[in-house]
Automatic annotation (TrEMBL):
GO terms for molecular function: kinesin binding. It comes from Cardinalis cardinalis. Residues 114-178 form the PLEKHM2 PH domain. Residues 241-347 form the Nischarin C-terminal PH domain. This is NISCH protein. Pfam families: PH_NISCH_C, PH_PLEKHM2. The lineage of its organism: Eukaryota, Metazoa, Chordata, Craniata, Vertebrata. InterPro entries: PH_domain-containing_M2, PH_NISCH_C, PH_PLEKHM2.
């Protein structure tokens, strides 16, 4: 340890997405290669001498205690824990959460250069992993509200790779086996499900960590919600969700010293007749077992919706991934103008 193959893989993965701006401290981490990266992990991050770094990933993350603040993090998976190296802008942007980030430990605020918070989630404390729709994100749940983190990979490949690596590492953990299941009779097996709702697909790992995947009903619920937002303009059976993707909406600011743009996280949903942007809660659903009350906001909140028939053109940038798309819609105030003209001119 470490093998050449592992060092090559970690070096390749150690790249900050080009559209994300991070602090100097994280840029330093992203500049490390191969053995230097492994040594950095052991000398600055690792909590146990004999743990091995197995996987590295850059991802946006959300914490259960601060659901409105999305921050870039370098996610490091070892044989003992999952480490989140966080951009220091997160700590300053959310200072009212003083109970979450212990201020006693931030004694390096006056330093001109420092590595910011490292959040640690030990594998022994891990209880479940919820995979989001179409593998666009996943949520890691520990034993309390402080130990719930969502990784917004916005990439099914990154999600799949991390889950595979996590399962492999969990297989190394020595946990006491679960007690033998009690044989159930037919009636208790099938009579207790009074929820009337199909459970999500659960895979219980040998380490007793649950991996929970969405079922078909989640898409059905989403289609129903979308149909509601369309004010009954379409009948539900014919409504098909063609695309669900986590994206960013670009807000461009002109006139400043330099033209800048901010990225607003959005969920883009495409149906056969409409294009929708939703503000989605990626961290609160499904409710953790210890939650005493439902979240303050719904899982999906409509931010914008346009009819495909009003789409005039789509502009594509020439840059590599991530691709920027601009949708240009006809700016018609009254969407049913033509229909009204027909009635006015040719009606009795």
């Amino acid at each position: 340890y470490p093998s050449e193959l592992l060092m090559q893989k970690i070096t390749e993965d150690n790249q900050i997405p080009v559209h994300i701006h991070v602090s100097v401290s994280l840029q330093y981490v992203a500049g490390l290669k191969g053995r230097a990266l492994v040594e950095f992990f052991h000398s600055n991050i690792a909590e146990v001498e004999n743990e091995e770094l197995r996987h590295l990933m850059w991802s946006s993350v959300l914490f259960y205690k601060t659901p409105s603040v999305e921050v870039m993090a370098c996610v490091l998976l070892s044989t003992k824990a999952i480490y989140f190296l966080l951009d220091d802008s997160f700590i300053h942007a959310d200072e009212h959460q003083s109970d979450f980030w212990n201020k006693e430990n931030s004694d390096c605020d006056n330093s001109s250069f420092h590595l910011s918070c490292c959040f640690v989630l030990k594998l022994n404390d891990l209880q479940s992993v919820n995979v989001g729709l179409f593998d666009q994100y996943f949520r890691i749940t520990g034993h309390s509200a402080d130990h719930i983190v969502t990784c917004l990979t916005r990439d099914s490949y990154n999600t799949h790779t991390f889950i595979q690596q996590l399962m492999a590492v969990l297989s190394l953990l020595a946990r006491t086996p679960s007690p033998e299941p009690v044989d159930k009779d037919f009636y208790s097996e099938f009579g207790s499900k009074n929820t009337g709702k199909m459970e999500n697909y659960e895979l219980i790992h040998s380490s007793r960590v649950k991996f929970i995947y969405p079922n078909e009903e989640e898409i059905g619920d989403l289609a129903f919600l979308v149909a509601e937002k369309m004010d009954g303009l379409t009948n539900l059976p014919s409504l098909n969700i063609l695309l669900y993707v986590l994206a960013f909406q670009v807000n461009h600011f002109e006139g400043s010293a330099q033209n800048t743009s901010s990225l607003q996280p959005k969920t883009l949903i495409l149906t056969s007749s409409d294009l929708f942007l939703f503000d989605e809660d990626y961290i609160s659903y499904p409710l953790p077992e210890f939650a005493k009350e439902p979240p303050k906001r719904d899982k999906y909140q409509l931010a914008d919706g346009r009819r495909i028939r009003d789409l005039d053109r789509v502009l594509m940038g020439y840059q590599t991934y991530p691709q920027a798309l601009t949708f240009v819609f006809d700016d018609v105030q009254n969407q049913d103008l033509m229909q009204n003209l027909t009635l006015d001119h040719f009606g009795e």
